[in-house]
Structures are given as C-alpha cells and as structure tokens.
Amino acid sequence: MTRVDVNAVAAAGVAKLDYCRTQPVRYLSRAAMAGAFIMVGSLISTLSAAWFYTDQPGVAKLLGAFTFSTALILIVLLGGELFTGANFVMGVSLYENKVSFPGALRIWLFCYIGNFIGIFLLALLVVGSGASGEMLSAYLTLTVPAKLSGSWYALLLKGVLCNFLVCVGVFAGFKLKSETGKCIAIIAVITTFVLAGFEHSVANMATFSLYALLVPGADFSGIAWNMIWVTLGNMIGGAVLLGLPVWMSAEPNKES
C-alpha cells in the first residue's frame, strides 16, 4: 500500500461526506441504487442455488457464491453507495483526520438506510410480480432459519471476516485500472465469503426482505438479532481489520 492509495481512499471519503451534506436526498438515492444492485445479485444467487439445492447441494452453493459477485461488480462499475464499502473508505478517512467520527457515522447511516430502501422496494416488486415465488419461498424456508440461530460472537466474527473480504474487492476498485481486473478481484473475494458462510449485512437485508414477504410466520426477532451483530462485525471488518493496516502500511505524509 502506498501513500497514493491512502490519499485516494481518503479523498473519496471526503467527497462522500461533502456530497451527503450538500445533497442528502441525492446521496440517499445513490445508496438506494446500490441496494437495488445487491438485490439483483441476491436474486440471481438465490435462484441459481435453488435450482440445484435438493439434488446437488455442492453445485448449488458454488453457483450461488459465484453469481452473487454480480452485485459488487455492478456497484463498482456503475456506481452506488454501499454501507459495507463505506466502512472501509470512511475508516481510512478517519485515520487520516480528513473526516470526523460524526461525519463517518453520517455516511454509514445514510448508506445503511438507503441500501435498505433500494432493497425493500425491489423486493416488493419481485414478490408482487409473482415471478419464481414458489421456488424462492421453498429455498428461503430451508436456508434462512440457520442464519437466525447463531450466537452473537459467531455472527459478529462472520460479519468481520465477510467485510474484510468485501472491502478487499472495494480496495481493488481504487488500485486497479482495468475493469476486467476489478471484476476478477471481486469475483475471487465475493465467492470466497459466500462459500465460507460469512455474513454480509446488506446481502442479508435482501435475503430477509424476500423471506419476510414470502414466508408466513417469519422470525422477525431472529432477523433483528442477526442484523445487529452482523452489522457491527461488518463495520469492524471494513474499518479496522482492513482499513487500519492499509493506513498504517503506507508511507507517512511528507508534511509529518
């Protein structure tokens, strides 16, 4: 990691905060767009896995992991403000003293809310259309309960590890110039986190939205339990586990 890399990430954090303060509705819209892209990735991942889940569970998991990469690829190539990526960017910006802690919290809050808005609106449209409803419902009924029964520390650590990997993909967007290179890096880290069973708070928003809308008697307390610990873990994974060593490994500013 070089000073140029850290400066680029910190500059992005400053730009995010300035835009969020001056154009809050537009910034929220960018976050909603990223949420919609996450829903697209979740849909293709869930449907791909559902096709093979009963007869070939290994193929189902691999295909679901690989196809979910679509979500982050769309965000990196087309734009959007993703909560988990902002954990890394604003963390580095904090260490550089380019933004304040309340400023970083503002970005995280706007991203989180905006991501959910985009996800839930698209989920309503998907469920309302009736497309693949039976397949989605059957698959989510089988797979979601396991995500709601984990201990707090397991969910926290799964969140930490997940966003470490996701933010490696985000950082690749700063480091790599080639769109092909960015896509390869994203596919590698996203496939890894899904195969490993790590937890991504925004992806879970998509999964749980479809689950709540399609499956009668959804466990809302379990959903809240998962979201709290996974969200905290994602923040630590992006801002601390990756953001801190990236910042510390760069050469110091010439001014210091």
Oligomer: single chain
Mean pLDDT: 95
Q: Could you name the ranges where pLDDT drops below 50 across 5 or more consecutive residues?
A: none
Strand content: under 5%
Counting helices, strands and paired strands, the structural category is mainly alpha
Our Rg estimate from Cα atoms comes to 18 Å
Distance between the termini: 18 Å
* Helical coverage, percent range: over 70%
Shape: globular
* Major sheet summary line: none
Number of strands: 0
Query: What's the SSE pattern?
Result: HHHHHHHHHH
Query: How many H/I helices?
Result: 10
Plain-language structure description:
It contains 10 helices and no strands. Helix content is 84%, strand content 0%. 50% of the residues are buried. The chain is globular, with a radius of gyration of 18 Å. It is mainly α and 256 residues long. Helix 4 runs parallel beside helix 10 and helix 5 packs parallel to helix 9. The two termini are 18 Å apart.
Please outline the helices and strands:
Layout (H helix, E strand, L loop, with lengths): L2 H20 L1 H29 L4 H22 L4 H13 L5 H29 L3 H15 L4 H24 L3 H18 L4 H14 L5 H30 L7
Could you give a short description of this structure?
The protein is mainly α and 256 residues long. Helices cover 84% and strands 0% of the residues. It has helices at residues 3-22, 24-52, 57-78, 83-95, 101-129, 133-147, 152-175, 179-196, 201-214, 220-249.
What keyword list fits this structure?
single chain, 256 residues, mainly alpha, 10 helices
